[in-house]
Prior knowledge:
The complex is a heterodimer. By secondary structure, chain A is of the alpha/beta class. Among the domains of chain A are: 101-204 and 353-418, FAD/NAD(P)-binding domain; 206-350, FAD/NAD(P)-binding domain (3-Layer(bba) Sandwich), CATH 3.50.50.60. In chain A, helix 3 (30-38) packs across helix 7 and helix 8 (120-129) packs across helix 16. Chain B contains twelve helices and twelve strands. In chain B, strand 7 (184-189), helix 7 and strand 8 form a beta-alpha-beta unit. At the A-B interface, strand 18, helix 19 and helix 21 of A face helix 1 and helix 8 of B.
Amino acid sequence: MVMKPTDTSNPDYFHKVVDCQWACPAHTPVPNYIRLIAQGRYSDAYMVNRASNVFPGILGRVCDRPCEPACRRTRVEEKPVAICRLKRVAADHRYDIQDRLPKKPAQTNGKKIALIGAGPASFTVANDLAPLGYECTIFEKLDKPGGLMRSNIPAFRLPESVLMEELGYILDMGVELKLGTPVESMSALLKEGYDAVFVGTGAPKGKDLGLPGRQESDDNIHIGIDWLESVAFDHTDKIGEKVLIIGVGNTAMDCCRTSLRLGAKSVKVMARKPRAFFKASEWELEDAEEENVDIIVNHSPKAFVHENGKLTGMLFELMEYDVDAGGKITDQRVVGEEVIPCDDVILAIGQENAFPWIEADAGIEFDKWDVPLVDKTTFESTRKGVFFGGDSAFGPLNIIWAVEHGHQAAISIHNHCRGVPLTDRLPDGIKLSSAKMGMAEWRYSNAFDDSPRRQMQHVELVDRFMKLDTEVELGFSPEQIATEVQRCLNCDVHTVFDPPLCEECDACIDVCPVECLTITPNAETEGELRAALTASDDSVDQDLYVSAPLPLTGRVMIKDENICLHCGLCAERCPTSAWDMKEGVIEIAHAADQRELSEA
Amino acid sequence: MTSFVKPKIRRTNEPLNELGLARADYEGSMSTLCAGCGHDSVTAAIVRAFYELSIPPHRALKISGIGCSSKTTSYFMNDSHGANTVHGRMPSFATGALSANNDLATIGISGDGDSLSIGLGQMAHAMRRNVNMLYMLENNGVYGLTKGQFSASADLGSLPKKGDPNEFSPIDPVAFALSVGATFVARSFSGDRKQLVSLIKAGLKHKGFAMIDVISPCVSFNDHKGSTKSYAHTYEFYSKAVHADYIAPSQEIVAAYDEGEVMPVELHDGGYIQLRKIDADYDPTDRGAAFSRVMASDSANEILTGLLYIDESQPDLHETQNMEALPLNEIPYAELNPGAEALSALQAEFR
């Protein structure tokens, strides 16, 4: 039995080729919006973004960018396309797009939805459901909306005006926001007659560190996320000169940079393990180090040191690790101790879910770590009509995951309210259309541009510390935008092969700059075919395309999707148009699209 | 957007040859031939052969005459010496260049038009003098640059794209080469990359005149039904007689010597050409046998390919003529040009 031809009609086949879109939890069509930016169509680029990720202005600044490590560009050079920064470009340069947003419907459908917690998950659910006529009410315990986007992300990374503008778009769709209204009892809320309840309360409980001296020096020990919230709401405006941050996640980065703005002179981030094990994103570490934060590795906290009821320092064990070839720690030992003096310690060692307001008899089950049991497709809890999303569902993730949870929960709520099974969900589709405009003319810029990644300009150090809310990143200049957009390889313009047209002239194979094509006799396993590749990449992240037998010799065309750069030269040199470049639009259904399913 | 420029991209883990060069370093300018032209495949095979042999591009000479095939010298090894010469006159140019410097890896690119009509006499004499070069005859049966008139290699009865069938007997470059004393005669097909690369490597290492007749279809003017030089026709009637692998002096011959099937031919550089005979009765070192086998396959409409004849024992032109082994540009100037007095003395001898 030889290998069967690859089924390219499954939308996932081409979707997977678009590495950035596949990696994005909300599947934002990245190359598509980058092309729109290249054409100066910033508003269109913003709207394409908004359809997937709802908050382009916010995410263009603070997204965790799972797309960038996945970017195909990293196969030929070190740095990916600055996808996240280009998203901000679309947001910064758009015109007023309010007339393109869904309006508040003239009539509601009478269904009431309670959304608990005014963070990205609840706002996404409201964004998807309010235009369909649902009466959405968001309950928020604080007196400003945004959830962690406001309380945990400092304003120097995400200005309040950007946050409020994008939340405002959703509130304008007729969503009711009840601020300063904590939900204190789930059972009570359930009796109020809502058709569905969505819990988007995040993971609000920062982890503590119960070491000797913790109680005695409590005044100068802060829980990271609580402290950030207290700064965001102007309850805290100063900190000691010497500050230690425990932990090296992204929260730790926000804590150390915020400390510098509140008067700290020396800030050290203390890590238990070497740099390769840090949880913080590389770019957040770079931004912190640019502000002269010291990141100190191999220090494991042992005790808080205090004198006369006041914190004076912290005792650390000096660690040594054995790391194997695969980068795993195989052994560790303590090689000494060190006291590092400090005035304040901020603990940024993780956060977890907490639902003190959900009664045990509310019908919502939790696992042994107090994480609710939530269906991974429908986001429904063990109680019908109660849904979870964002960090509250499966523990801390990030904003873009919260958005995707919101989209999926909205589909479920829509189905729930119409009596349609929650699992009746529209599958993804793909629409392919030829990008050919004429002889060697394509409606995308197929020439490979070898420019390196553009560097984001930052506000000068002295200026940025003067005010807590001075945004550090300045955004791309027009020249930077023009270059950065050309770095995108347009992975969504796919190489599509039509075997009956091929006459095996080898033109495509010869012209391919990365040698990703081969014509070879078919084999029994993918491994054998991979061995026949002219240029083979060890990585098997991507599929191997295997064509139907070619008409003249019965051999097959194989293509390693992993190294293709979508330059279109194969299609340009093909005499019979057996290769074509086709733009693929992945059709991803949201709640509004589900309507068609029930009517069909 | 039109690009039509093949970008130079270095992949991670890209293999490099002994000189530390990647295959792409042996490429040239972007081809302006028709998309799908067989010549582009031949160019790609040449690139791979030079890359695999680790020949420094600046130690290679590429020359051609006029025609579609002759354009292709621009499309490989940008860093080599080269010239487009007069129609059909490439062999003379090569003879001169090699007389001055016999150290260069020399490849001449020609076509059936350039070689078999205007250049037939030139090619014949380069063959009989055993000039030390590889001569690629990219054979598509038509004059592509002038819109597809039949060339001298078009088969009797082959149909043109428009008009009447060919009425003249073809010149078979392989039979012709055998008859005038070429010492390395091969045939291949642009669609058989593996065989072609092996033959080019063997031909470059052969000391003397090596000719490879490559069926290289013209997609624009000779790739239709009724053509005997189309991709479809060639794939259908293609037949392999002898496979030839070049084995460098540093490598060992892996396959055991098995009389009748595998046969090593020792080369001047100490390496070998290892012949693997698909047709066991065929002896590619016997010129008479080769000639009759080629003629038989011609009448059977079979496209016989592989290294069809090899004779490593003949001296090349340089040796026959007792020419200076050192390239002229390496001889000290005073020795190369002894001056007016020496010239006068020489002339006086003839007075």
